[in-house]
Amino acid sequence: MLAELESLTPLAPLHNPANIAGIRLARSVWPDLPQIGVFDTAFHQTMPPKAFMYALPYDLYERLGIRKYGFHGTSHSYVAKRAADFVGKPFDSLKIITCHLGNGASIAAIKHGKSVDTSMGLTPVEGMIMGTRSGDLDLGVLTYIIDKEGIGVQAANTLINKHSGILGISGVSSDMREVLRASEEGNERAQLALNMYHYRIIKYIGSYIAAMDGVDTIVFTGGIGENSAITRSEVCKNFTYMGLELDLQKNESIRGEGFISTNKSKVQVMVIPTNEEAVIAEETMKVVEANKVFVMNQKLKQL
Ligand code: AMP
């Protein structure tokens, strides 16, 4: 299993080595302790090929595994299931759009209990404008910059991952609170960054509504999704055409989880603080329980 995980390192060069080091260390301290890996990509494995494939030569998918994997799966899964609990309907009967807006950000389309599309891709740089990541970009822009600036692959990667996004546009900070403050003080680039940030979210939600042929519930989570009333109201403004009605009072005052749409809104809008640890614990329990049965069966066979 460890060898297989190591072979996947090229797909997650920043995350895999650190996690594998943790597994090895734990094994050296507690050699008999079972260890369970919960993958942030797992929830998105239900995406259909039309959503996860890139329109590149097919053999790149076969040889290198180039496709959309998506991330934040534990978070999207947690808040979507929690939303279904609140709405009081079965998870697999709903169309839900979950917006995980933190320093990293992604949106997922969850139809009848399954992730059918999500904005992050092979790497976390696709999709939303984030703290320091560009999100979607004309690929020609990157090759043009590489050519004009004479930079290598590594520097180009750093450019789109570390120096872009909210930080790159505003020149103020990658921290949304500081950018909001700067915009209130009249900083035009901070305002531009916010406008672009909200516009990108609106476009993705719109496209996922089309992809799912409708939406029942939109959920906001992550540091910005949970705390920024401005972001939620700016985004929701553009969906009044389909009967979404935000309760402005609730949107301002909500702390923790709950509805921020009115009772007569045709689309329910919720804030749900994410809890990835709970999902990890649940998935771990499932594997431990399944393993218990397996071990018991093995023992019975031996009798
Ligand atoms: P996360 O990665 O989920 O911890 O989210 C971090 C982001 O949430 C940063 O951009 C913070 O500025 C932002 N954030 C945290 N609290 C607030 C708040 N009250 N209003 C706006 N943004 C916030």
Instruction: Catalogue the unreliable spans.
Output: none
Instruction: Give me the number of helical elements.
Output: 14
Mean pLDDT: 95
The general outline is globular
Which strand-content bin applies to the residues? 5-15%
Global structural class: alpha/beta
What does this structure look like?
This protein has 303 residues and is an alpha/beta fold. The chain contains 14 helices and six strands. The chain has helices at residues 2-7, 16-29, 49-52, 58-64, 73-87, 139-149, 153-162, 165-170, 176-184, 188-212, 222-227, 229-236, 248-253, 276-302, and strands at residues 95-101, 105-111, 114-118, 217-221, 258-259, 268-271. It has a six-stranded mixed beta sheet with strand order 3-2-1-4-6-5, with helices on both faces. Helix 5 crosses helix 14 (276-302). The mean pLDDT is 95. The protein binds adenosine monophosphate. Adenosine monophosphate (AMP) is lined by residues 102-103, 131, 175-177, 180, 222-224, 227-228.
Features of the shown structure:
binds adenosine monophosphate; alpha/beta; single chain; 6 strands; 10% strand; 303 residues; six-stranded mixed beta sheet; globular
List the helices and strands and how they pair.
Layout: H1 2-7, H2 16-29, H3 49-52, H4 58-64, H5 73-87, E1 95-101, E2 105-111, E3 114-118, H6 139-149, H7 153-162, H8 165-170, H9 176-184, H10 188-212, E4 217-221, H11 222-227, H12 229-236, H13 248-253, E5 258-259, E6 268-271, H14 276-302
Parallel strand pairs: 1-4, 4-6
Antiparallel strand pairs: 1-2, 2-3, 5-6
Bound molecules: adenosine monophosphate (AMP).
